[in-house]
Design a protein that fits this description.
- The structure holds two protein chains of two kinds.
- Helices cover about 15% and strands about 40% of the residues of chain A.
- In chain A, helix 1 runs antiparallel to helix 2 and helix 2 packs antiparallel against helix 3.
- The two termini of chain A are about 40 Å apart.
- Chain A is built from three helices and 24 strands.
- In chain A, about 50% of the residues are buried.
- The N terminus and C terminus of chain A are likely disordered.
- In chain B, helix 10 packs across helix 11 and helix 11 runs parallel beside helix 12.
- In chain B, about 60% of the residues are buried.
- The N terminus of chain B is likely disordered.
- Classes of the chains: A alpha+beta, B alpha/beta.
- Chains A and B meet through strand 11 and strand 12 of A and helix 3, helix 10 and helix 12 of B.
Chain lengths: ~350, ~450
């Protein structure tokens, strides 16, 4: 009977959903609710909690809701199941670069066209670990992290036009670079630097020089992302206790907190129009993808799955996001919708 | 799903092909060379699984959070409630937090060495080397026998090796393996049988690669491999034959043991089950470990990785997070451990195996409570954790208490001897038997676990 009570509760929910639009007009959150509702209906029919006319009504609802939910299920791009992280779109959204745990002792950068979804190694002869790539919109520059001496990792900036490479090497023998992002004006790279002074957000120029620490706080600062207009950086920091999303100016000034939740909020990434920030949060019990306006309003949950959804990256069209998800058990790339119709509400 | 491994006869372990053949020649299951003494009472743990987190997992960032510690200690991860009253984990372990009624956590483990190799050996053997160990020119024979070797000697031979270690190769760090991996002073007869389980679930047995003249093939084509073994054997001269025969018998018995050999075949598991464990080498090794428990293997060591280091140019993905500890734990280590270990506990419970299987999850030490100058954590053997489930352990307990910064035990420290003694005691090796074996004679069990 408990499940029937749940159904009654959810029936009212879905009625309100039905009034708000039809099929594709539902928000992602509403569609997620419908999807789970449809499973609950099915279970009730199976267990005999519903009978006769009740069943028909609920089955009708189930068909209605399944139609919309299935149509918006994430699109799975890869099927190899190997551990992946930090995907980014390339070639105006036609391609992807991501890091993959390809061999037991090898994390490699992989590139893939969306049209054939066939990942290939970016640098086939490289024996070191290579991860956390970023590519400029015009495709000229590629940057990534490379393990160097043990356990130091360095930043590599590659000019794909003339084939030259520059490097930034942390000061400490065990210092590391993570999550480099090239500024839209291609003048600097913002990165997470673990070096004397702690784990901070910093910038270097395109020659790997002119290091500038933007944060110098207690706690951990990580996962920086530059806004499309190049004026702001979103990042995660535990300066106030646990990981929250913050925004600051490109010079490190004007820091303001965007999220406030007891569980971690990490990996912010700006939408192409600079209006929204997608990020990963554990606020609902496991890692899911959320989006919020850059002023902190209109928080939306984009995924709802018992397995991990992580590493969001915006498609250049601003309507879709690339994520790494374990929803089929394996670690694979998926595309989800970003619910752009809700912006401005 | 089976294939011959790609074992390199000359790797950092220093195990030569010759030494491998020599140890294999005398393995207990190979020729029944050992007397399989019956234990004096039925063991509470018919099998033991040691889930080995090589590299030193951070206790503050996993099972012993300190949310009220100063920021230079606390770390960025929030503490979450578990099903055990008063016990918190960090938010990296939500699934294990929801299952904390199935296991107990010791929070006052200590070790006597701050290096991966020596600390690993001390953890596995519950003692120190008599020849300088890893810091000198020590040899495996300088260490007391591994806990797995003690249990395998006590349990004796069977269709499958009594001590199996699941790893790509000898476990240690970039300088070499921990020398206490096997029989130690008892000799190589009691070394573990190494099995590699890839993330695809493909299982390979590196030792069989050493069968001279045996061409690579698939173990599931059993008839052909047996024929090949015979052919190779006929071509050996007498001297080499004696040396070779132990390994030959070992391979022969394994290949002939149809039901037991099937235990290595993960393709017999449903895709859903394999997926639940996570398609990682560690996840699939946990699943393989469960299958080995089902066929009665007494001691299985499931290794997180071969190397302690993480993202060194040569290494796989150990827990040695000197740099970027928090990023790495958030990206990989935390979620992967939470998924595989919680699934293992569920699976053992669902199959009615947890009651008779002791599962111990730990590393050689923890990590510095005080965050280092590059925002990460270093080695810390003075206080860390171990997780205990099944096999006679009372679940749902937090055993011992560390100080508010996680630096030192506030209650009685749990020594490696106490860990080893508790494991072998639950495996049915009592005080008298330990005295006969001359092992752990002064050890005490962790009473709060029982």
């Amino acid at each position: 009977m408990i499940c029937c009570e749940q159904l009654r509760t959810n029936r009212s929910k879905i009625n309100s959903v039905g009034r708000s639009g039809f099929f594709g007009c539902f928000s992602q959150t509403q569609r997620n609710e419908q999807y789970h509702f449809c499973h609950r209906v099915r279970n009730c029919v199976r267990t005999g909690c519903l009978s006769g006319r009740q069943s028909l009504v609920y089955v009708g609802l189930m068909i209605f809701t399944c139609g919309s939910a299935i149509a918006t299920e994430p699109q799975r791009l890869t099927r190899d199941g190997a551990l992946k992280l930090s995907p980014v779109f390339t070639h105006k959204g036609a391609g992807v670069i991501f890091s993959m745990h390809r061999e037991p002792n090898q994390v490699s950068l992989m590139q893939m066209r969306l049209s054939d979804a066939n990942p290939e190694r970016l640098d086939t002869s490289l024996v070191a670990h290579q991860f956390d790539a970023d590519v400029t919109a015009d495709g000229r520059y590629l940057c990534f992290v490379l393990t160097y001496t043990s356990p130091q990792s360095i930043l590599v900036i590659r000019d794909l036009k003339d084939g030259t490479e520059t490097r930034f090497i942390p000061q400490e023998a065990r210092g590391t670079v993570r999550s480099p992002k090239i500024s839209p004006d291609q003048r600097c790279v913002v990165l997470t630097l673990s070096d004397p002074g702690g784990q901070q957000i910093a910038t270097v120029d395109m020659k790997g020089a002119s290091l500038r620490r933007l944060t110098q706080t207690v706690g951990t600062n990580a996962w920086p992302a530059i806004s499309p207009d190049g004026r702001h950086i979103a990042f995660s920091s535990s300066r106030d206790g646990n990981f929250q999303i913050y925004i600051m100016n490109l010079d490190g000034s004007g820091v303001r907190q965007l999220t406030n939740h007891p569980l971690r909020n990490i990996r912010p990434t700006w939408s192409p129009d600079g209006q929204r920030i997608a990020f990963t949060s554990a606020r609902d019990g496991n890692l899911e993808i959320y989006v919020v306006r850059s002023d902190g309003t209109n928080l939306q949950r984009l995924t709802d799955h018992p397995e991990r959804d992580d590493f969001p990256a915006w498609h250049p069209d601003g309507k879709r996001l690339l994520i790494v998800s374990e929803r089929e058990g394996d670690s694979d790339l998926y595309i989800i919708e970003s619910d752009s119709e809700d912006v401005g509400q | 799903m089976f294939g011959f491994g790609n074992y390199s006869a000359k790797d950092c372990s220093g195990w030569s092909r010759r030494s491998f053949l020599q140890f294999a020649a005398g393995l207990p299951m190979a020729g029944g060379l050992l007397n399989a003494a019956q234990t004096e009472r039925t063991p509470q743990a018919r099998s033991v699984m040691l889930i080995w987190l090589v590299g030193g997992p951070s206790h503050l960032d996993l099972f012993d959070p300190k949310p009220h510690a100063p920021s230079e200690y606390r770390g960025p991860f929030s503490a979450i409630s578990t099903r055990t009253p008063g016990m918190q984990f960090t938010e990296l372990l939500p699934r294990l937090a929801a299952r904390s009624d199935r296991f107990s956590v010791v929070r006052t483990n200590i070790n006597y060495d701050g290096g991966h190799r020596a600390a690993g050996s001390i953890s596995w053997t519950c003692g120190r080397a008599n020849d300088g160990g890893e810091s000198g020119n020590g040899k495996p024979s300088g260490y007391p026998p591994n806990i797995g070797s003690i249990i395998s000697r006590n349990r004796g031979s069977g269709d499958l090796p009594p001590f199996i270690s699941l790893s790509r190769g000898p476990v240690g760090d970039g300088d070499g393996p921990s020398l206490g991996y096997g029989g130690g002073v008892w000799g190589p007869n009691y070394d573990p049988f190494m099995v590699n389980c890839a993330k695809t679930g493909q299982v390979s047995i590196p030792e069989l690669k050493l069968l001279e003249g045996l061409s690579p093939g698939r173990l599931d084509d059993r008839r052909r491999v047996l024929g090949e073994l015979d052919r190779v054997r006929r071509n050996l001269d007498r001297g080499r034959l004696e040396q070779w025969d132990g390994l030959h018998q070992k391979a022969f018995q394994l290949l002939r043991g149809g039901r037991t050999l099937d235990a290595f075949d993960l393709s017999r598991e449903s895709s859903a089950t394999r997926t639940r464990y996570g398609r990682t080498s560690f996840g699939q090794s946990c699943l393989l470990g469960r299958r080995l428990v089902e066929v009665g293997v007494p001691y299985i060591q499931v290794n997180w990785s071969q190397y302690a280091e993480v993202l060194y140019p040569f290494s796989d993905y150990g827990w040695d997070t000197h740099a970027d500890n928090f990023g790495l734990l958030a990206d990989w280590h935390g979620p992967l451990l939470d998924q595989a270990f919680s699934t293992l506990l569920d699976d053992l419970q669902d199959r009615g195996l947890l009651e008779t299987t002791l599962v111990v999850c730990m590393g050689e030490f923890g990590r510095t409570p005080r965050i280092n100058n590059i925002g990460s954590r270093d080695h810390w053997p003075r206080c860390y954790f171990s997780v205990w489930a099944g096999g006679g352990v009372q679940p749902g307990r937090a055993i011992g208490e560390s100080d508010p910064r996680g630096e030192f035990p506030l209650t009685e420290p749990v020594t490696p001897e106490m860990v080893g003694t508790t494991i072998v005691e639950l495996a049915g090796i009592n005080t008298q038997r330990r005295a006969e074996f001359r092992v752990l004679e002064r050890g005490r069990v962790i009473n709060d676990l029982l």
